[in-house]
Amino acid sequence: MPLSSQAILAQLTALVGPESVIGEVEKMGAWLNEPRRRFHIPAAAVVRPATVEQVQAIARWANAAGVGLIPQGGNTGLVGAQVPLRGDEVIVSLARLDRIRAIDVAAGTMTAEAGVILETAHAAAEAENTIFPLWLASQGSARIGGVLSSNAGGVNVLAYGNARELTMGVEAVLADGRLYRGLNSLKKDNTGYDLKDLLVGAEGTLGIITAATLKIFPKPEDYETCLVNLTGPEAALDLFQMLRARIGGRLNAFEIVPAIGLDMQLRHGFLDRDPTAGPSPWYGLVEVSRMQGSEPGALMDAIEAAFGTGMIENAVFAESLEERTRMWAFREQMSEVQSREGASIKHDVSVPIAAVPRLIAEGSAAALRLCPGIRPVPFGHMGDGNIHFNFSQPAGADPKAFMAQYDEAMHEAIYEVVLRLGGSISAEHGIGQLKTGLLRQVKDPVALEMMAAIKTALDPKGILNPGKMLG
């Protein structure tokens, strides 16, 4: 028989102590209120283990009792992987596992526990004159365990890769409470399956990540940052290809934002002043790292060459940390500012880089056919093909009526374009509970069978994040 809520609370309390268990729904807000407020089911309890051994004890208990566990980091996920689906699950918050266990500059590694906040990892690396180059808009609250479980991307994927590529090894508690000790820091270890790659990106469905060995890199001496005026995504693609050929691996980021994004931020006071060189249909945010001993000016030289070919007509360079910060704020505030404009239908998609202009053109046209007056707001990582293809409601429309009428149809229209162009329906946000049905529609059936077999092998009772990803 399933355990009652009272029994769950009593047994968890006996296991880890009353100070580590929360049973009152009114006290669970911090663990239930995910960023988009799409999911509203309370948990049976929230448990806050303070040690890896306590995580193991919780897993052993849950496996024996048949209670679902939801691993949670900073609760910043956007597809509902970290919050309840049914209401009988226990949220396992990893926030108290928050130690930096070791930094090895010579090896280029940092070992951090799952509850370490991403900004804390940045600070720890920088204290050793190195960087951990995974930067997200939510880095002040996102935690390492969640970042890895969702295989987060961010703005530096172009130069350093996403979370999976920045992870050398993981430690994880399996469904039956056993501990996988995989904190490998070897660059070469050809001894079988790379098990960390199963756990990174698995959204807590195969194991609970408790720590990870992460790659760190020498800290650049400086950054060269500019905002370029662009006529459109086609011009952005041309400029990106030119910059990549001239600058190579030092090209850290190439982001694009449409003019409507600047208009929204100035209108709602998100920016204290316009950081661009002047009005333009589109803007490109470009950043290049300058390593110690290298000459400055690589980005300036490349932009001047682009001027010479007529590829671009205007640009502005950051001359201070304040200006660089303002330029990056312009990019990072894009998701948040849309909420000030009413309802927004959002997509996290990717296509081959060369197909980004077609994605934006064909997706925008499809959306406008469905809903005349809708406002396309596509922006994001031009350098890796990941576009956050969002749509704000027509000005003055009723938000609830807009979402009721167009949400599902807009998803179908955009995903049709994405799949036709050889893209993915989830670039960096994951599947969670939001896209389980869609995943079954678009994923190769053999791939789904392999995923289900792995899930069954590692979690035969289905206690780890039940219902997420595979449904």
Structural class: alpha+beta
How many strands in all?
19
Uncertain runs: none
Mind describing the biggest β-sheet? 8 strands, antiparallel
Query: CA-to-CA gap between the ends?
Result: 23 Å
Instruction: Give the overall average pLDDT.
Output: 96
Helix content: 25-40%
- Number of helical segments? 16
Sum this structure up briefly.
With 471 residues, the chain is an alpha+beta fold. The chain contains 16 helices and 19 strands.
Defining traits:
8-stranded antiparallel beta sheet; alpha+beta; globular; 19 strands; 16 helices; 5-stranded antiparallel beta sheet; 471 residues; 20% strand
Describe the protein in words.
The mean pLDDT is about 95. The strands form 4 sheets. Strands 12, 13, 14, 15, 16, 17, 18 and 19 form an 8-stranded antiparallel sheet that branches. Strand 18 and strand 19 form a beta hairpin. By secondary structure, this protein is of the alpha+beta class. The two termini are about 25 Å apart. The chain has 16 helices and 19 strands.
Strand and helix map with partners:
Elements: H1 5-16, E1 21-22, H2 29-32, E2 45-47, H3 52-65, E3 69-72, E4 90-93, E5 100-104, E6 109-113, H4 118-126, E7 130-131, H5 144-149, H6 157-160, E8 167-173, E9 179-182, H7 196-199, E10 208-215, E11 217-218, E12 222-230, H8 233-247, E13 251-258, H9 259-267, E14 282-290, H10 298-308, E15 315-317, H11 321-332, H12 334-338, E16 344-345, E17 348-350, H13 356-370, E18 375-381, E19 386-392, H14 399-420, H15 436-442, H16 445-458
Parallel strand pairs: 2-4, 3-4
Antiparallel strand pairs: 1-2, 5-6, 6-10, 7-11, 8-9, 8-10, 12-14, 12-15, 13-14, 13-18, 16-19, 17-19, 18-19
Helix pairs in contact: 8-10, 13-14
